[in-house]
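Appendix B, Record 12. Input sequence as logged:
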Amino acid sequence: MVAPLRILRPVTSEELARAARAEAEPRVRSRLLALRQIACGQSVPEAAGTIALSERQLRTWVHRFNDQGYPGLRDRPRPGRPKFLPVAREEELRSRLLAGPRVEDRVCALRGPEVQRLLAREFGAHYSLDGTYFLLHRLGFSCRVPRPRHPRSDPAAQAAFKKTSRRSWRP
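Logged structural output:
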């Protein structure tokens, strides 16, 4: 018969609960709560059912906690291509976009293709148009924007025109 899986580190269930309350990352918090269930004496299948994890996942987290302690519960870096725009420069891009177009941009509004050229010119990040829209969405920008207004437009003249125009032109 196989011995039940136990936490080998000297830690109490109260310490695990305290660590879970202090944890900001939800995935690590659920792992700590699952370990707390094990520390309270539940079996792996019981604890896995309580926390809605598979038994295999819970066994993996118990082994990683036994080997590495609290840092073992954090997600490991995932493989993949690095981002074209470094994370450190994302806030710089956000503030640049919120400031609006400059004279050298030669446009009255920054749309997708303009942002794509801006990324290549000012940040050295070459994105496809779809990639540019994905980046903008990730940074919290919406693709729906109000229609741009020309800087030399006259709202009073436009209102006067609407009042004096023929009725058939009005909606």
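The helical segments are 13-22, 26-39, 44-51, 55-68, 90-99, 112-123, 129-138, 155-164.
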